[in-house]
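Reopening closed ticket. The problem is back. First fold of the pair:
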Amino acid sequence: MIRNIIAALLTAVLTANLCGCTGQAPAVSDTPYIMEGYSEPRKDENFCAECFTIYEYDNGDAMITTNDGKAYLIADSRPAGLAENITVIPHSPDHIYMAGSAVMCFYDAMDRLSDIRFSAIAENDWYIENARAAMQRGDIIYAGKYREPDYELLLTQGCRLSVQSTMSEHVPKVSEKLNELGIPVFVDRSSYEPHPLGRCEWVRVYARIAGCPELGEKLFNEQKRHFDELEEVEETGKSAVFFYITSSGRIVTRKAGDYITKMIEMAGGKNVFDFIGDDNAMSAVTLEPEKFCMHAKDADILIYNCNISGDIHSIDELIEKNGLLKEFRAVKNGNVWCTGRSVYQDIMKTGDILTDMHTVFADTGEETTYLYKIS
């Protein structure tokens, strides 16, 4: 009886005190979950991720807590007395409904796309080649958008887990319905990591869910190596602007505190718009063309975000979007780069993207994969 009371109190304290990694959300507590019949868990140490914690039990089960106050127990069955607000995820689930676009890359890197049966993203909207190919073969099938999933399809074909982005929080009825059908919901929060490498570290979460934690460590360390190699990189003195132009002609760029800005700095560059503070949760800022041009026209390098507004193949195409760009220093010097379409969907290549950025700023002449230069 006393043990049950202690366990309930610990669970209540953890649920109430989980706080955020960015100041906007709560942070993960260090208080472990103790359940009847379970050993006291061992806490896995993160390298730089702040928005999740993994606890390991002696019986092979694990608890994952996230910085929004949620907790997930990986177990084959629900232990007696487990708090109702803790989601139970089966070991190594297959027939996953993937509604979080940022998560597919982790399963691709682990060579576990076979665990995924359903997608909330249509075939042509995937820029991860293996995911698109799997949909073309019918190995992964479309099961409706995250806000309107095909419940009947998920139920009849045995969906065992739904992985959602935080967008699902705007339609809570979807998670409620999935839970009602017996389909556990896991919400990915990798995009809330303040450090770029912290996003990569979420591969450890999905490797633990998939039952291959050692592989997760290996994949994470491969990306960490890129950051380690550039840890002492010297500033190149080159300024850059990362941006795209909306259909209405407004310009969206990145401000201070954003992970893209941090990567530019880590690669030896300087974001022209780092003077715009991170006073809210949004990492991007929309500017009128005149204000954008006033600050960006003398930037050494332009990096155009093709993921949002489509591929650009020449500087002429870019100028067609806004004629003022013709007078930009980077345009005159032919120092305009574009991102590949997979940049946002392939978090597991963040280290490679950082290396590409350094190649651009240091002008090493090495071949790049995720950035391409336009003429």
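Second fold of the pair, where the issue appears:
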Amino acid sequence: MSFELKKHIEEIVSLTEQEFEYINSHFHSKHLKKHQYLIQTDESVKHIYFVISGLLKATYTDVNGKEYIIQFAMENWWISDFQAFYNNVNSITNISCLENVELLSISKENLDKICNESHKMEHFFRVKNSSGYVALQQRILSLLSTSPKERFEQFNQHYPQLGQRVSKTIIASYLGISRETLSRLSAKM
């Protein structure tokens, strides 16, 4: 039984022990080491993942070979190539481990099953998907309309612990700025 998953779900809905045991039975444990890939471009994506421990990044590589960091996922976050998962198409992203990770995975079939059987779980995943959509929209708007300094300040405000876990090069890439610009901004703060 995953205490972390139960606690995470119960931030939104309450579950009896029996309800949680049934839901938990639809998840499977997965362990990966630092630098391993969880998902690679052009793969079929059959699972979404809940992070028990560790840190991952999702990236997109354009036709010129430039890599863009789309998102991070750390403890108590969900990650997958959601477009591939929900639309049954191949992945357009790579998801790799920045640290050793412990994950729980759930298949589309099992996700649909528990959501169809449990209003609580349907509500939970609707809330998680909505909050993920809002966060993604905020990220896009930030990239489009704020200065590098403002993006760096937002990053530090929203993810204060992340700066200690990843290199400045990775943070700069996530913010869409050069490593040198990030160094200047860090020195000023």
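Update: turned out to be a display glitch only; the data is intact. The helical segments are 3-9, 17-24, 82-87, 108-117, 119-145, 148-158, 168-175, 179-188. The chain has a mean pLDDT of 94. Please close again.
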